[in-house]
UniProtKB/TrEMBL annotation:
The keyword Oxidoreductase applies. It comes from Xylona heveae (strain CBS 132557 / TC161). Residues 182-287 form the Fe2OG dioxygenase domain. The lineage of its organism: Eukaryota, Fungi, Dikarya, Ascomycota, Pezizomycotina. Belongs to the iron/ascorbate-dependent oxidoreductase family. GO terms for biological process: small molecule biosynthetic process. This is Clavaminate synthase-like protein. GO terms for molecular function: metal ion binding; oxidoreductase activity.
Length: 348
């Protein structure tokens, strides 16, 4: 990644902190099939794994506005009593409610500090696992938001294919057609403020994403990626209104023959969260069911198996997570995981 920058702002830690300098991709130029912008995207995918996507262009069709409108609906829903929300806890990893504390947290022996509402790609129409009325009453808005986000992701996949010279069935977008089932979902996260959660619930543990591309909308601090210039330290990812934060996930890394880079990341509590909840919305694009690839341990595995095994390891203990490469997608080998664990036993 480009050079780190140190900030003296009191946000997010109340002390100087470093921020990752990520490349910014112009979505309008990708739609126009600009080869230079596609090459810039490829460079970001190969070197950083994370990048900003500019949604302020007319080509984005008002996506940011749809995001803010959907977020306002979910903010009110997250404020409803827990008993109401758990009616939608189906035990599914693509549809329904996930309460706080079902996965590991960002510090040793902690549990996660976020609750979510997941909407499967076609989940607004599901009858067996219905979504809350607050969402269904705004189904046109939510469908538009999901469809527009998907449009952006398919453009990204197509641009990666162009830049890598892929043809036919090898093109990445061909692994993500609209007319076949997948584990793709839109996920709304709320990281509860300090007064509304147990202190043993801490952020989101480090991991790589299952997805091909994770398309993140966020307006608050908390997301971190490993520093490339200082061993065993983390840089914050700065949010920008009108810009999505995108990252390569395991599936695209594997489909690209490990050419594209999925990156560890985590979410940690900030000073801001002493007073307010933290919200983020992520569209996790996954290949269609039946897609296979070679994973981080050299196995030929289907996307369904990788998805299920990865979520199982998300829910495992920190000790269990260190026994294989699943959580971090092979980014950390066993020796590195053990070494990092010894150095990460600190309070966040």
């Amino acid at each position: 990644m480009p050079v780190r920058v140190t900030y003296n702002s009191p946000v997010p830690e109340g002390k100087p902190f470093t921020v990752a300098q990520l490349r910014t991709i112009n979505f309008g130029k990708l739609v126009e099939r600009d080869p230079q912008e596609a090459a810039k995207l490829l460079e970001a995918g190969e070197k950083d794994g994370f990048f900003y996507l500019d949604l302020t262009t007319p080509a984005s069709k008002g996506l940011w506005k749809d995001y803010t409108a959907c977020l306002e609906v979910l903010k009110k829903w997250f404020d409803t009593p827990l008993e109401e929300k758990t009616q939608y806890a189906y035990g599914s990893d693509v549809q329904g409610y996930k309460p706080i504390g079902t996965q590991t947290g960002a510090t040793e022996k902690s549990k996660d500090g976020f609750e979510t509402l997941r909407i499967a790609q076609t989940g607004l129409a599901w009858q067996n696992q219905p979504l809350p009325a607050a969402v269904l009453d705004q189904s046109t808005l939510f469908n538009d938001f999901i469809d527009k986000t998907r449009y952006h992701v398919i453009q990204l996949l197509s641009s990666f294919s162009d830049a890598m010279g892929l043809e036919g069935d090898d093109r990445f977008e061909r692994k993500h057609p609209d007319n076949r089932p997948s584990h793709t979902s839109m996920t709304f996260h709320r990281y509860n403020k300090l007064g509304a959660r147990d202190v043993s619930n801490v952020g989101h543990n480090k991991h790589t994403d299952i997805s091909s591309i994770a398309f993140l909308f966020a307006q608050q601090w908390g997301l971190q990626v490993p520093s490339t210039t200082s061993e065993n330290s983390w840089d914050y990812v700065r949010t920008q209104p009108g810009f999505a934060i995108c990252n390569v996930g395991d599936s695209l890394r594997f489909l690209s023959g490990f050419r594209l880079r999925s990156v560890l990341h985590r979410v940690v509590p900030t000073v801001e969260m002493e007073q307010t909840h933290r919200y983020s919305v992520a569209y996790f694009t996954r290949p269609v069911d039946g897609t296979t690839f070679k994973d981080s341990e050299g196995r030929i595995i289907s996307i369904q198996d990788w998805f299920e095994k990865k979520f199982d390891i998300y829910r495992a203990s920190h000790e269990e997570q260190r026994k294989n490469t699943m959580l971090t997608g092979g980014i950390e080998d066993a020796k590195a995981r053990a070494r990092i664990h010894l150095r990460e036993e600190i309070q966040i």
